[in-house]
Design a protein that fits this description.
Radius of gyration: 19 Å
Distance between the termini: 59 Å
Order of helices and strands: EEHHHHHHHH
Strand order of the largest sheet: 1-2
Largest sheet: 2 strands, antiparallel
Shape: globular
Low-confidence stretches: 1-35
Helix content: 55-70%
Oligomer: single chain
Mean pLDDT: 81
Amino acid sequence: PRPIMPIAINLRLYHRGSLIDQFYWYEQSISWEEPAPAEKDINHINDLLVNTIINILDDINNLSKCKFGFELFYAKAKPLNELRKPCDTEDAFVLLLSNLSIIIDDAHLDEIEKILKQKTPEKKSLMLIEKLLEENIGQFDKKFITNLRKLRTLRNKKFPIHSGEAEAIEILRELNLPHKPEPKIAARVVLERFRESLESLRDLLKP
């Protein structure tokens, strides 16, 4: 029989809108079929990236609340936790892109609209966030807005990318990915780009 031993895991949980770190001990049967070292490294890196993304979203919401009087994103637990799932198939990669888009699209749009001096015809998260920053910060580098829009464009594409999908192929090329990327590697690259974009937004909101 397989040996049983307690294993400590760290779970980031939402409680009344706040992230909490809690340790849980549980007994789990140890599998003799360990993942390959490279696979474990990639999964570990992706998990660390998700932790960082969650922390940055917390910072953004805290800064936004101080600056505008409301949190910018809902940052719900489900799409954030979905980012932790292993990304070993093309379908899993598309799901990752979808969850990243959900996180950005799920902003407090009504609150943003209330304080905008110039109303926008379309109620889209990135458009409203861009206008909010323009009116309250002034000129800024919009590269992170462009990058987030590109990630959302990839969400609507079917993988592997067809050779005729020029826009999607160009986005993958900018990410240094082939048009038929290996899902695990692509997930790490996309999460890294998402993290960089959120960091840029956080820096803009700092006093």
